[in-house]
Amino acid sequence: MLSGQSGRTSLLGGGGSKPLDAAVWNWQDLSVLLVEDDEADALLVEELIADGAPGLPVRWVRSVAEARERLAAGLPDCVLLDLHLPDAQGLEALARVREYTDQVAVVVLTGLDQEQIGLAAVAEGAQDYLVKGRIEPELFSRAVRYAIQRKQAERAAAALRASQMRAQENARLERGLLPTPLLRGERSVDIVARYRPGRANALLGGDFYDVVQQADGTVHVLIGDVAGHGPDEAATGVALRLAWRTLVLSDIFGLRQLHLLEEVLLAERTGKQTFATLTSLTLRPHDHSVLVTRAGHPGMLLRTGSAVDWVEVPGGPALGFLPGRANWCSHEIALPVDSGLMLFTDGLFEGHTDAGQDRLGEEGLLELARTVTAAEPAVFVDELIRRAEELAEAHGGLADDVAVMYLQWNHRNLNQDNR
Fold first, then answer.
1. 3-state SS, one letter per residue, for the chain
2. pLDDT confidence of residue 156
3. What is the pTM of this model?
4. In the structure, what pLDDT confidence band is assigned to residue 352 with cuts at 50, 70 and 90?
């Protein structure tokens, strides 16, 4: 017998849609919610189920209000919906059910003289309609089966469209955050750049980098991280990177550059709590020196042969942390011809390293880097990222985005310059 709100429990309450094999149709694995105020019609549906869909669990309610309570408890695979209910008439009943959930197939039930409203219901989003008095068991089972399959196809198509839109959005953000280096003249510096999205992000986060080489061989490098995740932070990162490149091309460097970048951040950020860390470098090939300006960003790894050291020059607060009151400074370091300098965002060392709450940290990253023996910069970077991800595997991988840049002098062009 049909189970209504009175408490009879011979029928299942539903558990969401399940993928179905066309060759094997197990009615017992599905569930249906019947919304029908006429007991005679409800008994008719019970007979149709017994003959055309044996074993199909169904719950019976008498109004849209009761249907919403049932849907709140768990979604069935299909709703059989009468369009003449005590609290909703015609297409209003369909609209109210779909307003609550559009994840369930709906088959509307109409009277003999109301076939047109059944067609209208399909146009409004129902998967099918059945005319009372003309329903045979085979027609009934086919209608329910096809309705569920159509809804599954709709949901799969919607998921595919959403995935494609995310991919397109990701591509646009990637072009903005992770651009092609702008190099004038012969390349002075060899660059290895990597980006890894955090495990929870469908889109890129706020990590960004850029490289601009001037005609005299001087190379300007930027790496930064906007706090937070999501499209707003990514858009802010794009704005900062573009502003930085514009300032470099306008010959604005050092502390003046940071103050202007902070103005851009303050204008672009969507909340007062948003800030950005960054490190800006100026690499001068004529004396193998690097001018470092740091705003709240982590230090760097200096790699010479098999030796790896942590380099962290004095800096100042992150952009936006103390608006209009921050003080920064620049410091010069040497980058020998046989050395490489690796910059990164904090996602590389903030991952948990075991089943507890310990994080890798800066010291842990340095020790990890010292265990990587690969001589080739690209292999070194990839292996270091892989090992950091492996350590965080117990927590599902690195939670934050990771941007990495490895810089070393281009030996061939430096040798040509020295001749």
1. CCECCCCCCCCCCCCCCCCCECCECCHHHCCEEEECCCHHHHHHHHHHHHHHCCCCCEEEECCHHHHHHHHHHCCCCEEEEECEECCEECHHHHHHHHHHCCCCEEEEEECCCCHHHHHHHHHCCCCEEEECCCCCHHHHHHHHHHHHHHHHHHHHHHHHHHHHHHHHHHHHHHHHHCCCCEECCCCCEEEEEEEECCCCCCCCCCEEEEEEECCCCCEEEEEEEECCCCHHHHHHHHHHHHHHHHHHHCCCCHHHHHHHHHHHHHHHCCCCCCCEEEEEEEEECCCCEEEEEEEECCCEEEEECCEEEEECCCCECCECCCCCCCCCCEEEEECCCCEEEEEECHHHCCCECCCCCCECHHHHHHHHHHCCCCCCHHHHHHHHHHHHHHHCHHHCCCCCCEEEEEEEECHHHHHHHHC
2. 83
3. 0.63
4. confident
